[in-house]
Amino acid sequence: MLCVSFYVTLPTASKSPLRHNNLALTTMMAEDDYTSYYEPIEHDGRYEYYYGPDDHSKPSGFAEPVDTWEDKDGSIYTTDRKKLLYAPCHIKTYTIKDGIEEIGEHAFSNTEDVIEEIILPDSVKVIGDYAFARCLRLKRIELGNGVEHIGDYAFESCAVDPFPSFGEERNQLSLETTAAPLLITIPKSVVSMGRNPFVRSHIKIDNQSPNFKVVNGALYSHDGQTLIWLSPEVESFTIPASVTTIGVSACADCIRLRSIDIPDSVTTLGALAFECCALEHITIGKGIKEIPYDAFRDCNFQHVTLPEGVTAIRQQAFESCMLQSISLPSTLTTIDDMAFSMCVHLKEITLPQSVSELGAGAFHCCQSLTKVNLPEQITTIPASTFLDCRSLKQVTLPNHIKKIDISAFRRCASLAQIDLPAGLIRIGQCAFQECTSLKQVHFPDSLVVIEDCAFEGCSSLTSVDIPDKVMTIHELAFGHCTQLKNVTLGMNVKSIADYAFSGCEQLTTITLPDGLRQISPNAFAGCGALTEIRIPTGTRAHFMEILAQVDLVAKLVEVDKN
């Protein structure tokens, strides 16, 4: 995730909404998973601009205030005129002024549809992160002979087609183009680079720096130990045995690469290393200890074996892959959030007993998954773990599970039965919502909380027996369970919330405890078949009072306590 914030001071005449918006657009989100936005906030004459995901969360820190100077062509610099902050969006050929030493982050990000040529003077030493990102029409760039550092993703998505054949969404880009690649010459002066500066770009690199080398379409550190970038034009590639590190996004979007063998010499695999590759085959060497986030997202291989020694699979590592099966090592302890999300062809997975941490949405929308046995060390089923696993029929929960979190099994339409472990304490919101094949659930005596909508829409559920430790039946907990006929509430239930059983159109009998104190007016809305409410002997007056505001025609039947 990228979050950027900085202050600027604008000339009095420029403090207009239009200028604020133009300046704000100098920082764009480079990650397609997030939406950029901008909000100018004035602080003592300075304007703060924040960019981040569309949940509007704030970054942990803010940049120092920056005073600016605006040129007549619309370019914005720091007042010492050594750093270019913003390049105007209307110029096709842009020559950076001599004396500028740094190109700021996202400086050209507002020029994506216009700019075709950029010329840097020898005075420029630093090219900031994302400086030329998404310069889609760029045909020529000259880097001056003074450049020493090229920042993270500095040329991300340059010279690519913004309107690919598979869609015309604005944030979709395509490397499938017949245009000549953009030539980028790395001058001798360059000593360092950030994370893959050239990711998703249609380029050709001419390296002149002694600190790097280009071999067969791949950019390496001079010693050959770090693979920095692989050209998306490459169809066949062998990682040299000298490589120990595959950098962040190094092989991302290599749309022609079908097979890769990661040698045992590689000990560090960067995040997004092979994201959106066309890989149909992959071998992962024994040196890898962790699969980083997004490492293989959107790849085409159907099977992969992780070697012994791998301890963690990070966020979205295999999201949206064509995986049908995966072999996991006995050393694995952590599967992070959405690690296998959207692997719609994944049919089976055996989790080793060493796994103790399972992330939210780990198997979200694995629509072909039919069976899962969870390791004994798991104590919580996190939110959305098996959300939309529509073919899941069998789940074995470990004995130490204390909580099943929000939407954990929501819309598992094939799940007909589940055995809840004896120590379970809480069932979260929507945990089993719309599990339309679920016929029976046995609640353990340990259960304390059943949250809102936990079993809403379980249209095959026929009976419910609530254990004694549960004190509240929350909103829509069993709403629209259209086959539900009989309900027995535990002796400590004190309240039934609105719509708790609404839409249970075949509910005929419910047994209430003498300690019940409140039934919300709509608790049984749409329960037209409810004809009998069983209450303990001697409590008729009490229940007549609390049922007075409830729209029911059922008769009260007194029964002896067991």
Please supply descriptive tags for the structure shown above.
single chain, about 550 residues, mainly beta, Leucine-rich repeat, LRR (right-handed beta-alpha superhelix), five-stranded mixed sheet, 2 helices, 45 strands, about 5% helix, about 25% strand, disordered N terminus
Structure overview:
The protein has 562 residues and is mainly beta. Among the domains are: 199 residues, Leucine-rich repeat, LRR (right-handed beta-alpha superhelix), CATH 3.80.10.10; 91 residues, Leucine-rich repeat, LRR (right-handed beta-alpha superhelix) (Alpha-Beta Horseshoe), CATH 3.80.10.10. It has two helices and 45 strands. The chain has a ten-stranded mixed β-sheet, with helices on one face. The protein has a five-stranded mixed β-sheet with strand order 16-17-18-19-21, with no helix packed on it. Strands 38-40-42-44-45 form a five-stranded parallel β-sheet, with no helix packed on it. Helix 2 links the parallel strand 44 and strand 45.
Sheet/helix structural class: mainly beta
- CATH top level of the domain at 1-199 is Alpha Beta
N-C termini distance: 58 Å
Count of helical regions: 2
Oligomer: single chain
CATH architecture classification name of the domain at 1-199: Alpha-Beta Horseshoe
Low-confidence stretches: 1-63, 163-175
Average pLDDT value?
86
How much helix is in the residues? under 10%
Which strand order do you get reading across the main beta sheet? Answer: 2-3-1-4-5-6-8-10-12-14
From the 3D structure, determine the CATH topology of the domain at 1-199: Leucine-rich repeat, LRR (right-handed beta-alpha superhelix)
Rg from C-alpha positions?
Answer: 30 Å
